[in-house]
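== Folding the chain ==

***
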Amino acid sequence: MVTIEVGGRPLVLLPQKAALLPQSHTLLVADAHIGKAVSFRALGVPVPRGTTSDTLARLSGLVERHGVQRVVFLGDLLHSARSHAAATLSAFARWRERHAALDLLLVRGNHDDRAGDPPASLRIEVVDEPHLDGGIALCHHPQPHEAAYVLAGHLHPCVALGGRAHDRLRLPCFHLGERVGVLPAFGSFTGMHALERGPADRVFVIADDELRELPS
């Protein structure tokens, strides 16, 4: 874990591709993309099974390990309208029953707009961006806010290490600029994109369940 300060508050970066606001016991998760695999299979694309279960299991582990009281999803919780498949929502409902006391908040992302809001039975409060939380603006799209530090997702940031394109190793990362920070995608079945790094940006790469800051 690495603790930094954003918006005048401590933020703990976790190697499990999430972040923690310890003062409010809040876990931040970007781009879970629950139901992405079933969405692809519905289109005839063969993809691995079990990704939703894996994503929810990792989320449970973080909630229990860190005494989390609230989870904020920074957009793209559900991948598409096909994510409302019975088996996917049943798995999500079982997870919700296990964590019935948790406060859940979804800041809508572009995929949420297409998928539609989660069922009311999951008891997830849904809001549009930005959602202001003290000196922090919780968003999906990483765009600067005039009065707060933005924490967002959407871009699925990674670092490409190595030489030639076919030999490069891509690792997820936290990409933190002066006014906007981007969390890695949390979901088990998501792509990644290398971002251009500005001179003042801090980048924390995730490798072997460890966080390491890359030199500027």
